[in-house]
Amino acid sequence: MRRVFEAQLIRYLIVGAGNTLFGYGCYALLTFLLTGVVPYAYMLAAVLSSVINITVSYFGYKFFVFRTNGNYLQEYLRCYVVYGTATLVNLTLLPVLVTILNLFVRPPEYAPYLAGAVLTVGTVVASFIGHRRYSFAPQITSHAGGGGP
After folding, report:
1. pTM to 2 decimal places
2. First-to-last CA distance in the chain?
3. Are 31 and 42 in contact (CB under 8 A)?
4. Rounded to whole angstroms, what are the CA distances from 18 to 11, 68, 102, 111?
5. Of 22, 47, 84, 106, which shows the fewest CB atoms inside 10 Å?
6. Average pLDDT of the segment spanning 100-123
7. pLDDT band at 140 (very low <50, low <70, confident <90, very high)
8. HSE of 105, CA atoms in CB hemisphere, 13 A
9. What separation in angstroms does the CA of 106 have from each of 24, 46, 100?
10. Coil, strand or helix at 37
11. Is 144 exposed, middle or buried (0-12, 13-18, 19+ CB in 10 A)?
């Protein structure tokens, strides 16, 4: 069981590194493209990139990390629960962190990029636990009647 966990953790770190780079790149690109077009562009970028990143992450985790069969919609929706929770926390903390970083970062236009990077670290740790224990957890089925398997 320990080897399974270790192999799974290594695969998670590989996929997670790619997802993190892709996710942050998507956020940074959207922030860049939307800045000057809409107010609080970094907030809209965070929401849009989250939708894209959750979908990309789901496929990597399902087929490479946790290697589950079936349950496509259920696992996809569970990924949204795990990442959705992290996204809500990030959306709450992002403007606070950007405001604080604006006091220290020069030019202040870099603050949303740095804030996004900082929040990404917490998401990586929390998402592994959430995906392992919830999104892609083995399904336990109960048998009616209390008989054997």
Report:
1. 0.75
2. 22
3. yes
4. 11, 20, 29, 23
5. 106
6. 92
7. low
8. 14
9. 20, 22, 12
10. coil
11. exposed
